[in-house]
Amino acid sequence: MSHRAQLLADDPIWLILLKVVFIFLFALLVAMISVWGERRIIGRMQNRPGPNRVGPFGLLQPIADALKLPFKEEIIPVTADKPVYRLAPVIALFPTFLAFAVIPFGGEVSIFGERTVLQLVDLPVGVLVVLACSSIGVYGVVLAGWASGTPYPLLGGLRSAAQVISYEIAMGLSIVGVVLQSHSLALGDIVDSQHGLWYAVALLPSFVIYAISMVGETNRAPFDLPEAESELVAGFHTEYSSMKFVIFYIAEYINMIIVSAVGTTLFLGGYMAPWPLSLIGDNVLNRGWWPMLWFIGKILLLIFVFIWLRGTLPRFRYDQFMKMGWKFLVPMNLLWIMVLAVISAWGDLGTGGRLISIGFGVVVLVGVAMMMPDRRITDPGRVPMAGSGFPVPPIDLQIPSKPRRTRQGRSRASRRQTVSAASSKEVEDGSA
């Protein structure tokens, strides 16, 4: 048993309860700060003030919203499956709090004279626990869409299921690279293995793929297709109001905090100080309560990236979004894992084994190049299909050579032909 696990195993019951209360309050507080920050930052990007009426700089606006929304009228559709309708928000929210149990917030500290680690539990499969919790949360979204009994929430729930499945695979594969390098699934061990170089630098492709996947996993813009107001009114929570809507709203922001905390732990050194500060005073800023400050700062930085993307990028089309997940992120992840495996085994191979590895890599690259679609247009008169290989009706591709005649225009033309025929007949009769 590691030293971290030994300290956590010796925690008294009051200290465990204190950590549980801290996790609950931390998640709610950071979610409120994120709501306020998002409204202020996007307002700044769009040249408007944002919330500025309640408290200085609108700081009390989240509290005002939290007091207002529970008192709003709750409307339940007649067609709703009421037990599932009421249970769905709870299923969406509960796994988000559960995932915080394995996140390391800091190193070893003393709380009221008791030596412990700023973590609730250090499981040997902590990474798998986080992935399982993020997968369970989608059940709440799917059940909310189905139990509402109306079409638009159902479509939003089905979209969310397809989206989470697609990007959960890419996210899981991006974590494989970290596991290969750290040789552990425990989040505490992964943080300790980044003392020399953060995995965001050493495993840059994995970090980029994880960053894209975490935006798609949380249904945030530009990947907010389950909530696309231009298509589905509000998506899976269209029929929810009052406190049930608030639960879905909080669950979305806590999901952002979870994926940001996991990304910080896996790729940004966890609770360790950034590189210039880590050299100060014999690494004194990586001891005591300082690591918790660095950890929270990194989480807020990633949440700012979420907000930045929402304020700058337009929403993806659904086929583009699914294509990027299945045809780009997953194959690139698999190829990158293969490269990491070869690099890890490179030192154990002899000259013949290295030559075989190089030949295998060349074959893989040639195979990938052969699978790439041919984008050339052989017929210069042919217009390429809209999007990337998705056919559209031919009427949208061809410009008519002459304007179409309406029914009124055709009737006028037929009258003109009748008049001209009658006049020509009169002329023939007069000449006779």
From TrEMBL:
InterPro entries: NADH_UbQ_OxRdtase_su1/FPO, NADH_UbQ_OxRdtase_su1_CS. It is an enzyme of class 7 (translocase). Pfam families: NADHdh. Residues 402-415 have a biased composition (Basic residues). Its EC number is 7.1.1.-. It comes from the Bacteria. It is found in: Cell membrane; Membrane. GO terms for cellular component: plasma membrane. It catalyses: a quinone + NADH + 5 H(+)(in) = a quinol + NAD(+) + 4 H(+)(out). NDH-1 is composed of 14 different subunits. Subunits NuoA, H, J, K, L, M, N constitute the membrane sector of the complex. This is NADH-quinone oxidoreductase subunit H. It comes from Actinocrispum wychmicini.
